[in-house]
Amino acid sequence: MDGKANLGKFVAMRRKLMGITQAELADRIGVSKSAVAKWETNGGLPDRDNLCRLADIINISVDELHGIIRNTAAFGTNEVNITPEIIAALESYGYRVIRPGKGE
Question: Lower CB density within 10 Å: C or N end of the chain?
């Protein structure tokens, strides 16, 4: 899996956790809805300026986004680093998150 695929899945997941549509994200970034759809379906990567705006909107650093792009195995294994913000969002929707090593 390449970096585009990792970023696409991450952006889609983060956008959905935020409860916004592709069109709403596109408006906030200043691009078309089709640009966001392209990123989420691995058709390309945002340019530098759009990557900065995207990072700001989804509340993650540009360095972390670059890490996702570089880490070709991030979504190809069973190990995914879920941030405390994502856990909090899941729990706010009523999901029960079991942390590794914590058991039932």
Answer: C
